[in-house]
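Q: What does the predicted 3D structure of Class I SAM-dependent methyltransferase look like?
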Amino acid sequence: MSDKTHEENVQRQFGEQASAYLSSQVHAQGAEFALLQAAVAGRADARVLDLGCGAGHVSFQVAPLVGEVVAYDLSAQMLEVVAAAAEQRGLGNVCTERGAAEKLPFADGEFDFVFSRYSAHHWSDLGLALREVRRVLKPGGVAAFIDVMSPGSPLLDTHLQTVEVLRDTSHVRDYSAAEWLQQVSDAGLYTRSHTRQRLRLEFGSWVERMRTPEVFRAAIRALQAAVGEEVREYFEITDDGSFSTDVLVLWAER
């Protein structure tokens, strides 16, 4: 699949349900928001890039504390939702820009912070995107990446990637902690810390948010029923298909 085709798939998948992501509890809530706010506290002059902003939850959380937030996403419909919600909330320092993570339309050293939450698993080239992050960060600038994380074990990884792509065909990969650390280092960024969280996903809302076709929903449920006990226990799969997954919170510095 070409990059162009992948970009078109991402735009199609998310554009049709942009509003659903604004009201999604999974995306609107999270302990990591307090961490992001703490990072920008006292930096009223800071410029922040919300990379792969989705419905803008990160932007809305940090905008009251900084000078400017650029909400950046591949989906024009998502950005329309962000712009409307920012206006409704009186956040005049939030602006939107459309494009891919692998080719940022910004000059070198434009941002004090780059935050990305639940976006990287859609990027076609993680390493290239991370090099772009480094390029647009000021020296000493800080980046935070929050994303679903692969457990690393081949057995568990195969299950996770399979259910992810069945639910959302624009999915590329959930990376393990080791993969993240290597890619961040290769991009010329220094990892300050990385921690693991757990995220509970209610099956019905998880597939409905992406309007997953019924045939793929049935395939996910059939796979869950067929896997071994070690997979079922790790992901805490329940009878209704709900499950838990790992989330990585990684802080890096240029």
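A (community wiki): The structure tokens above were generated from the sequence. Residues 3-149+172-200+245-253 form a domain with the Rossmann fold fold (CATH 3.40.50.150). The mean pLDDT is 91.
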